[in-house]
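tRNA-Thr(GGU) m(6)t(6)A37 methyltransferase TsaA
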Amino acid sequence: MSQPQFPMQAIGYIHSPFDEKFGIPRQPGLASIRAEVELVPPYANADAVRGLEHCSHIWLVFLFSATADKGWSPTVRPPRLGGNQRLGVFATRSPFRPNPIGLSCVRLIDIRCEHDSIKLDIEGADLLNGTPILDIKPYLPYSDSLPDAEFSLASKIERLQQPVVFSPSAAKSCEQLSRDLNQPLARQISEILSCDPRPAYKKEDSERVYGISLYGQNIRFRITQEQIDVISIEPNMEL
């Protein structure tokens, strides 16, 4: 028996400050990053979002476009478990799936309808810039919020407790960029780094310097037992 085909089209795309996968929080809502969903024709229609303004939060169904061609495996090593334990792919939120589809709950800030353009301002997105959006659904508190739900392998948010310390040059750059971007950049950087973006197998190397790309800036940092050092913030010359 042949498998049925279910063709899908992107209804829009994400515009976010995340230029590469490394550094993106592994779940939505862990950093107060603002992004924009831009709908494309024929979905850029004011009628299509009528009533959505009553939602505080929405679900984004999206395509893991950066890994869609990488295939999948029945088991994966979740970073949350240190990369040392294998779980079934359906017990994880790994992007390497039989169908590379993801789901994120984000805060809806505003809906802007401008001629043939429909843009949704959102907060808490964990999506790479340019990610295709396949669908948008309202978050329903009475059914989507389940206080008694359990998952023992991921029962709480895990954040590093070390203080985030900016070097004098990084602090100066951060202050200027915060004004230019009109964003709380220091808070956003602290939230992202507290999620510990390092690969699990390299976390013992406290001398290694990493870089994440955010708003076109290369943010270089180091994580030790005592603190999280933001070493420098400079334009990303690779973009």
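thats it. The two ends are 47 Å apart (CA to CA). The CA atoms of residues 170 and 234 lie 8 Å apart. bye
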